Amino acid sequence: MAEQWHTDQVDQLADALLALRTREEMADFLRDICSLHEIETLCHRWQCAQLLAQGMPYAKVAGEVGASTATVTRVAHWLKHGEGGYRLAIDRIGERA
User: Fold this and answer.
1) What pTM did the predictor assign?
2) Which of 11, 52, 56, 72 is most solvent-facing, going by the fewest CB within 10 Å?
């Protein structure tokens, strides 16, 4: 059984994201769908996930990214116990490097 968060609307949003082909298209979509604050928040979470995956301590991640320790802790939780999305993206980007 799917969890409550995984709805038809989430699937539709995922389909829209998958329809975009370039970094510029994705950036344009993000700007249209998110406020500047939301984009900044997403960027902070992504940076936290990448640094945590490299083994950087929480406090150092918070200082480096400019995120609260609560945000770093939340990202660390989802990195370890989430759906695997952070890890998959990190691994795939690493494959391209």
Assistant:
1) 0.89
2) 11
